[in-house]
Design a protein that fits this description.
The strands form 3 sheets. The protein has a 3-stranded antiparallel beta sheet, with helices on both faces. A two-stranded antiparallel sheet has the order 3-4. The chain has a two-stranded antiparallel ribbon with strand order 5-6. Helix 2 packs antiparallel against helix 8 and helix 7 crosses helix 8. It is an alpha+beta fold and 237 residues long. The chain has one domain. The longest helix is centred in the last third of the chain and has 14 residues. The chain starts with 15 loop residues before the first helix and ends in an 8-residue tail after the last strand. Strand 3 and strand 4 form a beta hairpin. The chain has 8 helices and 7 strands, in the order αββααβββααβαααβ. The structure holds calcium ion (2 copies).
Length: 237
């Protein structure tokens, strides 16, 4: 269940343990690689998918995007879903800190912004970025969601890729742009993988330019297996 506020966030993809897991997965499912789509084991959730990057990009539905009706207030601000005193921002700062942090309101610690390599000990210089920006999500499907689904999307702690602590300057340069319009200075392949994973998780579409850019980029990146657990999405009646 994709309960927002789950404190045990998935291991970050740049953590050493993660690359080993990814390698193991790649080997296990190498036979299925030609099809791109990788079968999930019997213990896997029906809503969990493992797909190689290029197949994942091919699978993203293309649709015209519609900004009409978008307002930031259509998505809820940070809240404390599990009532442990940390709101979503503080949860992400805690999960991504390079040193142990314990405060309710996380002010100091140590973080590295993977978009640009900037590091800080002062959390006020970092933003929590929605991997797929709220306006972009609206355009590509979230406009049809219930208010409750949009609140969960904006506070998604169920997948460590959905929210990322990055330098405020990189977050502001990104704004609400998609990968056809903006790419980070560093770690472009990681960015593409995580962006695609979040679009899949929330069943969001892409526009044509976005599909073209993602396809080109993915062709230059390792064709790794992306594992995604789909979020529950409820549409407005
Ligand atoms: Ca909390
Ligand atoms: Ca787009």
């Amino acid at each position: 269940m994709s309960t927002p506020g789950t404190r045990t966030r998935p291991v970050r993809r740049d953590a050493p343990g993660r690359s080993m897991r990814t390698l193991a997965l790649s080997a296990t499912f190498a036979v299925a690689a030609s099809a791109g789509v990788v079968a999930t084991g019997p213990a896997a959730h029906a809503d969990t998918q493992s797909v190689r990057l290029r197949a994942a990009v091919r699978g993203l539905p293309v649709a015209t995007e519609v900004r009409t009706g978008y307002e930031r207030s259509k998505f809820r601000d940070w809240y404390d879903a599990d009532d442990d005193c940390q709101d979503t921002r503080d949860e992400v700062l805690t999960a991504e800190a390079l040193v142990k942090v314990t405060a309710c309101d996380v002010k100091s610690g140590e973080w590295r912004s993977y978009y640009d390599g900037v590091t800080t000990k002062d959390s006020s210089t970092f933003d929590i970025d929605h991997m797929v920006p709220l306006a972009e999500a609206w355009d590509s499907g979230a406009r049809r969601w219930t208010t409750e689904t949009r609140a969960r999307y904006a506070n998604d702690l169920g997948d460590g890729r959905a929210l990322v602590a990055v330098s405020a300057s990189s977050n502001r340069s990104k704004g609400d742009q998609d990968p056809a319009e903006w790419m980070p200075a560093l770690a472009k392949c990681r960015y593409v993988r995580e962006y695609v994973a979040v679009k899949m998780r929330w069943r969001l579409s892409v526009n044509k330019a976005e599909k073209t850019t993602l396809t080109k980029r993915a062709s230059t990146c390792k064709n790794v297996v992306i594992k995604v657990r789909r979020a529950a999405v409820e549409l407005q009646k």
